[in-house]
Amino acid sequence: MRKLSRARYAVVLILMTHGALATALQPIVWDRTPIGLILTVGQERLVQFPAPITLGVPGSLPQSLRVQTVDDTVYLLAQQPFEATRVIARERDSGRTYVLDVTASADGGQTPPLQITLAAEANPPDRADGDGNASHDATAARIGYVTLTRFAAQQLYAPARLLGDLSGVAHVPIKPDSVTLLRGDTVEATPLIAWQADGLYLTAVKLTNRLAVPLLLDPRALRGAWLAATFQHNRLAKHGDEADTTVVYLVSSVPFAAAL
User: Fold this and answer.
1) CB hemisphere CA count around 65 (13 angstroms)
2) Residue 206 forms beta bridges with which residues?
3) CATH code for 2-118?
């Protein structure tokens, strides 16, 4: 009986704690303006999103920031101070993107849990227009990393008879100037074409091996803030060989030049 009583007490305590946490959530409405998120070193901060998300953390932060994601909630713990750094969160199902500007201070005060909410939509995604078709927003919301990358690959490599437009995807201008995309200066990178859909940008970049030996491409050598990167082929033959060139598909939350 004593064990049962203690178990009941523990359950009640957990529920009370959860209730206290819920009432302490600080709401903020996502309106496409980057959300400033201040962390205090050594103090974990909870951020709750409207739906389960995936968090894209820049490579410069892993040693400074501990990140744990559980469905729609992210737990952030700064190990040391760092300047404002942009972090991208993306809903797994809808593809909606959130932009956070995260900074950490050693002498900050207690920071409350944050709850990100959505503004009321004049035309909800699941409503149909007068013709009975889903709205443009609903179509675009279904376009994620994989769909956008597959579409780009088809545009570059598929036979002309199989090419077609994808609702919600539009071309965006891009300068075809050579850029330093991979560290080490072993690969020449030239943007080819870019598309945009529902806050996502995909840029196809041609990569050419500059070395006289074969080269294995490593995504960790990429410069820039990318949500996803996919090589058409990750191995390049030596310079001058017909297989010394490939394409990388880069997904970002901002245009290519800004992400680079």
Assistant:
1) 30
2) 190, 247
3) 2.60.40
